[in-house]
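User: Structure please.
Assistant: Input sequence and predicted structure:
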Amino acid sequence: MQVTIGKQVRQAAVTGALGTANERLHAEACRYIPGGTSRLHYYYHPYPIYARSGQGCYVTDVEGVERLDFLNNMTALIHGHGNAAIKQAIVEQLERGTAFSEPSEPEVRLAKLLVERVPAVEQIRFANSGTEAVMMAIKLARAYTSRSKIAKFEGFYHGYYDYAQVSYASTPADWGPAEAPASTASSGGLADSVVDDVLALPYNDQDAVERLLEAHGHELAALIVDPLSNRAGFPLPAPGFVPFLREIARRNGIVLIYDEVISFRIGYHGAQGKYGGEPDLTTFGKIIGGGLPVGAVGGRGEIMALLDPRERAPAVASGGTYSANPLTMAAGLAALEQLTPEEFERLERLGRRLRERGTAAFAAAGVPGQLTGDGSLFRILSTAEPVADYRRSLPAPGHEGQMARLHLRLLEEGVIVSRDGLGCISTPMGEAEVDRFVSALERGLGASSAGG
């Protein structure tokens, strides 16, 4: 039955009946899983759709409804679903073995590719997620500098490590002055001492960052930054800002960490290849695993040597039963080998087309909003103001619920993005898919502006 989620939501609100397969599965899931899903980012009211299968740039849910997938497992599937080369690599490795206590050849080959592709990475160590990679990078910075505290930018998300969960979801009620943001806990469960060990910084404000780092630099082990932060609305770095971060970090003996878990997909050499900055360490995830769980941290040899067990016990202990799992390594290698400079250029052209036409759709509808991003990434925002930092990415007054409504409208039109408006282009897509997205957005905005 080809009934889409937007219609399901409206029907359920009226009848209260558990009449759809998605709704029934969610009700069952809530008996066993808090909220019915293990991933917070994919819950939305009153219930999410549940995927049955995916092929190319389409996902089919448990009711047989097929939708264009512009989310791709939170940007991890740059080749969409069922990529032939990735499937072949997984099957071949599956025949050889799914996991070993010993290292395997695919780990070496993927490490070699990443070291050769990213100039700032001299050595690399694999983990199971972006969160683990960030945690390892921060611990390396602490061991290298013999300092404890870190600095991060307000509104920037770096996973679920305690110290990364400071000030990524602050609000006007607790965020303090713009030039010196307050450090606030963005999750329960953090130790009281965590907030005091994290300095929050305003993005793209060079003068304020310089004042704060000159005052606190002697205490800081690391400065972590995402060169293109989704959580902050994809603000582009201001001219000179990224090189400035490199210079001031070096001046204060701070390890500069780039979090490229998402932003690595914007170019052949990642975000640092596009924006510069020469980080000391870089964290990776998502696309480097070919659709399987992955994380990694790489960087300068003298810092990465803290993980080396050959001469003595490593200064920083790390492990993980499934770190560098051969299935993931084989899938990741197959994924990255297909990502040539020419393919990145094609994805960037499609991304630019989508962002420009999508922003024009907001203007034509008379609704505050825009599409931000770079390369193959985009974010739908409910503000038309230029976005330079987290605070300016938040919805225009009176439009706080706009994205939630638009998200459901897009699902009804057969298009998947995140509930917060995150989306991306995958390699199976072309201009036809981009144009279909824009048409769906235009219809969704028309319905929203009409109060539907």
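The first strand starts at residue 51 and ends at 55.
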